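Deliverable D2.4 — example input (structure tokens):
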């Protein structure tokens, strides 16, 4: 049997274990809350995490490229980018797939599966860096606004346009 066929056959088990491994990267109290309910209103982070993991797994068993993968990872990476995770912790949930694969897959398929996981990890890291850059630019722009408003109130500068404030943003 080919890797994608085995992954498809064991899809629910992979998703369940991967979701559990992902929420276990949070502190114990948070993990308990995140794992309880997949209702978007009662537990939005848990629901988004589960949905994203399922969407990424569907890409694994289908065809994907880095751009589609980054777009699919976006919701979970955005959440983890604003939380108290360093970069390695923010994308570490992807590597838990390797352990899950070792437990479920034949030894002959592990190497091929590990390559898929590495692709996912690289896409997750790229997306994380883009999110961190956006956060930095938002903070920098807000700082400029605050300083400029203070100078305006003091009568030291004239009004700036939004374009002037965002001047440091590179498109």
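Example output (designed residues):
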């Amino acid at each position: 049997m080919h890797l994608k066929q085995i992954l498809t056959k064991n899809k629910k088990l992979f998703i369940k274990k991967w979701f559990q491994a992902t929420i276990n990267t949070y502190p114990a109290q948070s993990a308990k809350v995140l794992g309880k309910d997949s209702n978007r209103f009662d537990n939005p982070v848990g629901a988004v995490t589960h949905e994203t993991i399922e969407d990424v797994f569907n890409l694994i068993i289908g065809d994907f490229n880095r751009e589609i993968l980054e777009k699919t990872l976006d919701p979970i990476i955005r959440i983890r980018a604003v939380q108290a995770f360093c970069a390695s912790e923010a994308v570490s949930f992807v590597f838990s797939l390797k352990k899950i694969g070792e437990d479920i897959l034949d030894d002959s398929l592990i190497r091929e599966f590990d390559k898929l996981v590495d692709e996912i990890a690289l896409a997750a890291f790229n997306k994380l860096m883009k999110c961190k850059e956006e956060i930095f630019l938002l903070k920098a722009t807000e700082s400029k606004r605050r300083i400029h408003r203070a100078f305006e109130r003091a009568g030291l500068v004239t009004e700036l346009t939004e374009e002037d404030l965002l001047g440091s943003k590179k498109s």
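The chain has a mean pLDDT of 88.
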